[in-house]
């Protein structure tokens, strides 16, 4: 799952109390299901192979970094 806002591309922060993501840039909020729906819709747009590769790499890197950070905090 991408941690980026599907609306504006801003960074999403997970709010543990409210159990949703909120966007630093535009303030939109998503729960996990809403975010995954929104991302599915966003990525229906056809991308070139180059865009796909770059996007996947960026998303993966950001996901990996944020996931690592979460695990560290929970441990
Ligand atoms: Zn946003």
Q: Would you mind describing this structure in some detail?
A:
- With 75 residues, the chain is of the alpha+beta class.
- It has one domain.
- 49% of the residues lie in helices and 13% in strands.
- The protein has two helices and three strands.
- A three-stranded antiparallel beta sheet has the order 1-2-3.
- The longest helix has 26 residues, at 49-74.
- The two termini are 22 Å apart.
- The structure holds zinc ion (ZN).
Name some characteristics of this structure.
75 residues, alpha+beta, 3-stranded antiparallel sheet, 3 strands, 49% helix, 13% strand, binds zinc ion
Topology, element by element:
Layout: E1 12-15, E2 20-23, E3 29-30, H1 32-42, H2 49-74
Antiparallel strand pairs: 1-2, 2-3
The structure holds zinc ion.
Main sheet record? 3 strands, antiparallel
Low-confidence stretches: none
The separation of the N and C termini measures 22 Å
What string gives the helices and strands in order?
EEEHH
What strand line-up does the widest sheet have? 1-2-3
Q: Strand-residue fraction?
A: 5-15%
Which small compounds were modeled alongside the protein? zinc ion
């Amino acid at each position: 799952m991408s941690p980026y806002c599907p609306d504006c591309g801003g960074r999403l922060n997970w709010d543990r109390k409210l159990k949703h993501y909120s966007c630093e840039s535009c303030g939109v909020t998503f729960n996990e299901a809403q975010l995954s729906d929104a991302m599915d819709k966003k990525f229906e747009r056809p991308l070139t192979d180059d865009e796909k590769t770059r996007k996947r790499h960026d998303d993966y890197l950001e996901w990996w970094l944020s996931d690592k950070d979460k695990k560290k905090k929970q441990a």
